[in-house]
Amino acid sequence: MHEEIGVYIHWPFCISKCNYCNFNSYVKSVPDGFINTYIKQLQKFKDYFKDKKLRTVYFGGGTPSLMKTDEIKIILEKIFNSVKEIDSKIEITLEANPETIDEQKLIGFKNTGINRISLGIQSYIDNWLTLMGRKNNRAKNISIIKCVNGVFENYSVDLIYSLPYQNTWEEELTEALDLSLNAKHFSLYELSLEQGTLFDLKYKNAEYKDYIDVTHKIMLDAGFDHYEISSYARQGARSSHNMLYWEYKDYVGIGAGAHGRITLNGEKYAFEGERNLDKWISNDLVFKKLSHKEVAIEKLIMGLRTDLWCDIDEEIIDFNNLKMCTEMGFINIANNKIQTTFEGKKRLNTITEEIIKDSIL
C-alpha cells in the first residue's frame, strides 16, 4: 500500500487586503509566467511523489478563485502525472471568495477536477462585512451560495465571530445555518487580533464577547460534529485535507510562504517557501530534518486540536505534567493515549505549554 499524501498550493493574490488578515497575500497583478514557478517546485518532488498515493489537493490563499481554469489544470495535471496512485475518493478543494466567482466560473472549476469549495462568506451581515473590509455583501453571499449549491455537492462555509462590539452572534449563526443551504462543513473562526493588521491597530481596546460555548451548542443542536477547534461537519464531511495535517501525515506545500512536512528514509523533514514573492520565484526550498523530539511534539500538538486519541511518546512527554489538566476535565488519558475535551480545546495553548514545558524543542 502506498503512503497517502496531500499537496497544498498557495495562491497569494487578492483583490484587496481584509482588515483582520495577516496571511501572506498581495494586492498586485500576477507576474508573467508565474505559474511556471509552481511547476518547477513540484518537479523537485518527482522522486518523492513516484511511490505515493495522492489523497488531497488544496488550493488556498490569498484568493485562489482568482486563478484561471487553465492554470489550475496545468498544476493538477503535473501533480497527477507525478504520483504513483490517486485515491478514488480524492478531495480537491479550492478556496473561493464570493465577489470573485459566478455560476460559469464555478462550472469551470468543477471541470478542472475541483470537487470541493471552501467559501469565504465570513458574515451575512453587511455591517460586519464592511468592518472586516470584505468586498462581498449579504445579497452577493446569498446569491453565490445558491450557485455553489447548484454546482457542488461538497462545500464548506467560513464565518468569523467575536468581532468588535458584536452582541447578536447567536442570532446571526442561527440565520447563517439556514442561509448556507446544504453546506456540510463550517469553519467558524473566533477573531484573533494579528499584529500589524488594521483590526489590531484600531480595535485593540474594543469590547469582545466570548461566543465559543454558544457556537458549540448551536452547531451540535444542528447535527454537526465538532471534530477540530474551529471545524464542524456533517457525518462523512470532515475536511480530508485538514485531517491530513492534524493526523501528521506528509504533505507538500508549494507557494510563497507555504510549508510542508515529508518523510524521507524514515526521517521527517520540514520545509517552507520564501514569504517574499520575488524571492520565492527565484529561491530554492530549504529543508530541515526534524529531531525525534520535534516530531513527537509536533504530532501531539496537531492531534490535540481534534477529537482524535493521540499517541504519547513517553520518552518525550511527562504524564505528571498532565495530572492537573486531567483532574480539571480538560483532557482524557487512556492506554498511553490522550484526547482533549471541549473544555480542553478552549485552553489548548495552556495545555500545550504544560505538555512540553520539560521538553523544550
What does this protein look like?
- The protein is an alpha/beta fold and 361 residues long.
- The chain has 15 helices and 15 strands.
- A 9-stranded mixed sheet has the order 7-8-6-5-4-3-2-1-9, sandwiched between helices. A 3-stranded antiparallel sheet has the order 10-11-12, with no helix packed on it. It has a 3-stranded antiparallel sheet with strand order 13-15-14.
- Strand 3 (85-96), helix 4 (103-112) and strand 4 form a beta-alpha-beta unit.
- The longest helix has 14 residues, at 69-82.
- It is globular.
- 36% of the residues are buried.
Task: Identify the notable features of this structure and list them briefly.
globular; single chain; nine-stranded mixed sheet; alpha/beta; three-stranded antiparallel sheet; about 350 residues
For the termini, the CA-CA separation is: 33 Å
With strands numbered from the N-terminus, the spatial order across the biggest sheet is 7-8-6-5-4-3-2-1-9
Overall geometry comes to: globular
List the secondary-structure elements in sequence, H or E: EHHEHEHEHHEHEHHEEHEEEHEHEHEEHH
Helix content: 25-40%
Kindly estimate the percentage of residues that lie in beta strands according to DSSP. Answer: 15-25%
What's the mean pLDDT score? 92
User: Total number of helical segments?
Assistant: 15
Structural class: alpha/beta
Radius of gyration: 21 Å
**Count of strand segments:** 15
Describe the sheet with the most strands. 9 strands, mixed
Q: Which blocks of ≥5 consecutive residues have pLDDT under 50?
A: none
